[in-house]
Structure formats: C-alpha cells, structure tokens
What does this fold into?
Amino acid sequence: ENGPVEGQLGYGQVVPNATVTIRGQTSTRYAQKNYRITIRDNKGTWDDQKVINLNKHEQDQSRFANKLCYDLMSELPGMIAMRTRFVHLYVKDMTKGGSGEYEDYGLYTQVEQINKTYLKMHGLDKNGQLYKVNFFEFQRYEDIIRLSSDAGYDADSFEEYLEIKGDNDHSKLIEMLDDVNDTSKPIEETFAKWFDEENVLSWLAFHILVGNKDTQSRNVFLYSPLNVDK
It folds into this structure.
C-alpha cells in the first residue's frame, strides 16, 4: 500500500516506466476494469514479462474460477495454458487533483500474455504463426484475410478478425481456410490435415465441462510452428 519496495520494479523511479490501458471487450462496461500494463523498452521486466494483464472477473463472485481453469488446463497434456497468479492491486491516482494516496483496488488475477516471448518461455516456436481470435468463425473472408504482400492487404481490417502475434506469413492460414471452406473435400480429411486432434478435442471437452461459452468465436489463439501444417 506504500508502493514498490527496494529491489522491486519501479522502486525509486520518478520517470514513467510503463503505460496502462483498459483491456477487454464486454468487460469494459463493468465498474471495475481490467488493466494491461506494458513496461517500456529498457525499463526491466516483472517475472520475466513485459506485459502484465490484470483481470478483475467482476462477474465471478468467487474471484477464483478463472484462475482455477488456467491451473487445470496447465495439467492437461493436450492443452496449452498461461501462467497466472493472484495479485493485490493498489493504485495511486494523481489525476484531477487526486490525493496521491494508494487506493486499494482489491484482488486481481494476473494472466500471462501470449506473444513471441510466451512461445519462447514455453518451449514453443517463437517464429511460428500466432493469432489472437478477436471474432472469427473460420469463414474464408477473402477480401480481408490476404497475404501481407497483396496490394489489397489491410492489417487493421485483418486484425478485426485475427490479431497478428507471430509471423506475418499468412499463406498457411489461407490454405487452411480454403480447405475448410471447400465443401467438396471431406471435413474429416481436412481436420486431420490441419488440426491437432488431441488439442482440439481436449479444448472442446474442457470448455464444455466448465461451462465456458465465451470461446466459440473469440478469446482463443491459433498457433502453428514453422514447417508444420498443424
């Protein structure tokens, strides 16, 4: 409640070392916000991370269901999960004549950011393809999902569907979507070619069991290492 102590990130610093933004989609309407803290270059890391996601989970009265799910996923061989921890958040608001005292914002869950650093830390291919699904239903979206070298390519429009977190070569993604949307090809063959069966079935089963309905067309990641079609 008195700020960083000696040895912690930010101790004794008076120049801003990070930026803070409100994160989330529907959660931004809630009174208690989720935050993303991005540590600036050459300003250090926190637990080997430069992006710190803090989730309030205001709609979960227990405040631990989300972290429990991440912990369970990390134990399943067919799943990939993020590191999480509980944190106690204090905020000193100096805007609009604030008192400068730290205000207790209560319990938050810190969730590891999935990016190239995440891939490297977890023994995955940091040079592979990685997309965060913002809204995506595996349609072809021919006017939007294009190669980055195409004349009509627009990164902002692309990222309305899929946020690019890895390599910018979208040829594998496009080839997969062409096959998925080709009704002349048996879906069983397409599925076996492009998707890791254990991962997909584990993912489906897990979210059915825990009653998570918010990952059908968003809040998931698509990942593929280089030189692998899956």
